Amino acid sequence: MPPPSSVYPQQPIGGVSYAATGKPYISQAPLQQQKGIVVVPVHRRSLNNKVVIPMTTSLKMFLLFSGFLYSLWGILAYSFQIAIIVNSYSTYYHGFSTGAFLIFGGIIMMVIGFRSAYPLDQLMRIYMVDLIFCALGLVFSITNYTTSNRCDSISTWYCDDSLANNLKIGLMIIFSLSTIHTICNMFYISKEQKRAIATLNPNIFNH
Questions:
Q1: Domain boundaries of the chain, sorted by first residue
Q2: CB of 175 closer than 8 Å to CB of 145
Q3: Taking a C-beta distance cutoff of 8 angstroms, is the pair 35, 71 a contact?
Q4: What is the pLDDT of residues 137-167, one digit of tens each?
């Protein structure tokens, strides 16, 4: 007769169970389950968030000079609009609103130029507003110039003489220059913002 086999409870050792015969075997179901690792996605800061950018010397000089030009465009637009009202028969009054926004934007740019750091995305919003007003001012100036009555030989109260026509052309030139200036500023500030963010965190564009 074979010796009676003794029954021993299976003892798990390190996740491997040993039977009474001394031969190890891997159990069907794991005796211990490893805790799952929870991966939490990390949302990196977007470029459009309020990232404070250190102001370099070149950026400060750009903002001071560009802000001065902005204020100059606004003062010229305001002055030309007053002259057009005095000398023209029919006119729009877009020079006042657009000129005021250009002066306001120029002052803000010069103030930012004296700071040590600033979130440039806020400045981009100001550029967007200025661009809309400059584009509208240019469209209204062209419309006013093309639809106004021009005097043939004798100036009357019901037509625009050569001085009024030249003033309207001058206002269109001002709005054209300010529009181009705004677009150039937006490209430059966007480039500086990306460069500064890449300097602060070189891996931000690698994901």
A1: 53-201
A2: no
A3: no
A4: 999 999 989 988 888 766 566 788 888 889 9
